[in-house]
TrEMBL record:
Residue ranges, annotated region (Disordered): 345-364
Keyword list, A-Z: ATP-binding, Kinase, Membrane, Nucleotide-binding, Transferase, Transmembrane, Transmembrane helix, Two-component regulatory system
Signal peptide: none
Pfam families: HATPase_c (PF02518)
Sequence intervals crossing the membrane: 29-47, 59-76, 96-118, 130-154
Molecular-function annotations in GO: ATP binding
Record organism: Streptomyces kurssanovii
InterPro entries: HATPase_C_sf, HATPase_dom, Sensor_HK_TwoCompSys
Highest classification ranks of the organism: Bacteria, Bacillati, Actinomycetota, Actinomycetes, Kitasatosporales
Name of this protein: ATP-binding protein
Stretches assigned to the Histidine kinase/HSP90-like ATPase domain: 273-363
């Protein structure tokens, strides 16, 4: 609507430029009025373009100056009807701006009525015929009506589009939750159900150490699954990626205690980077900590901008001195660099004999 009303005003100003340069070159007041109209229009529409909407103050100033003051200023003295015609045209675009800028219908009606009164008086002072006056008043009223109708239509279409977008997002979220449930069902079939079936049929000895370790890993997975369902299904993309990192480490024999708290959905590249960095942090626990147990905490803070997400990987193993330790490829490239490239950050806190704490943040 800013563009449409701006182009409408530009057409009136173009007519004014032609009228003054071709027929009123000897009238200084006409040049002053044209300059005021141009400067005022640039100020009003430039401000609206920068803000994204018409402010009430600039719109009022436009109506008063362009729609009210200039017609009387140009028509002062012995001006003819033809000499004031170009400035009277500006009343139509002034009424269109008012129809878009003012939210109350009473204000719009009042502005249009005021403009009609001013222009009718101004034209009568020049001795204009009734048909000329009526045509000008019709232009003012019709401009306001058309602008109001177009503005209402655009807002209505925007509301319908927002509603359709919301329905699509809801449907996509529903499909994502269904896909996650199917993935969990498949995982349960391939792990917990397979283990229970093997024990029930006598093919696996419940007291055997490998079977006990497998049961411990699958019990941890079930606890996380129940927690996620209780917390209201964390975002499937992000939560699933991090859960995949945890289960990957568990498949290598590491016992992982994982907790998820208000996990937000973040961009796919960031979720992938967090999952890969988490995998490398857990691999480091396996390779260097001397312990078989790690703790992963995933926490979202929806109140911050960008839905920040923090993943913490902690072990109570051997630890190391970060100042003396030369960073290997894993920490340098697979953790720090990966998070930095995705717009996140990583911090490593450790001390000999005190274990290690790796914190991954997105965004940084």
């Amino acid at each position: 609507m800013i563009l449409a009303t701006g182009l409408y005003r530009a057409s009136h100003l173009a007519a004014g430029v032609v009228a003054v340069t071709q027929h009123q070159r000897g009238r200084p007041l006409a040049w002053v009025a044209l300059g005021v109209a141009l400067a005022g229009s640039v100020a009003v529409f430039g401000t609206a373009r920068a803000r994204g909407w018409f402010g009430t103050g600039p719109a009022v100033a436009d109506v008063v100056v362009v729609g009210g003051v200039l017609p009387f200023a140009v028509g002062a003295g012995d001006a003819t009807t033809a000499e004031v015609a170009w400035v009277m045209m500006l009343g139509g675009s002034a009424s269109a701006v008012a129809a878009v800028a003012f939210t109350r219908w009473a204000a719009v009606v009042g502005v249009v009525a005021g403009l009609c009164l001013v222009h009718a008086v101004g034209y009568r002072l020049t001795g204009a015929e009734v048909g000329v006056v009526a045509g000008n008043l019709n232009s003012i009223v019709s401009s306001a009506v058309l602008a109001a109708v177009f503005w209402w239509y655009l807002r209505r279409q925007g509301s319908l589009l927002d509603a359709a977008t919301a329905r699509v997002l809801t449907a996509e979220a529903r499909r994502a939750r269904l896909a996650e449930r199917i993935a969990h069902h498949r995982a349960l079939h391939d792990t917990v159900l397979a283990t229970l079936t093997a024990i029930a049929s006598g093919r696996a000895e419940p007291g055997a150490e490998p079977v006990r370790e497998r049961c411990a890993r699958e019990a941890a997975y079930l606890r996380r699954l129940v927690q996620q369902q209780t917390d209201g299904d964390p975002a499937p993309g992000t939560a699933a990626a991090l859960e995949g990192a945890v289960r990957s480490a568990e498949s290598l024999g590491l016992r992982v205690g994982a907790q998820y708290h208000a996990v937000p959905e973040i961009p796919a590249h960031a979720a992938s980077a967090l999952a890969d960095a988490t995998t490398e942090a857990l691999n480091n626990v396996l390779r260097h900590s001397g312990t078989s147990h790690a703790y992963v905490t995933v926490t979202g803070r929806p109140e911050g901008e960008g839905l920040p997400l923090v993943v913490t990987v902690v072990d109570r193993g051997a630890g190391f001195d970060p100042e003396a330790e030369v960073k290997g490829f894993g920490l340098r490239c697979s953790v720090h660099a990966r998070m930095r490239e995705a717009g996140g950050a990583a911090d490593v806190d450790s001390a000999p004999g005190e274990g290690t704490r790796v914190e991954l943040r997105w965004p940084a």
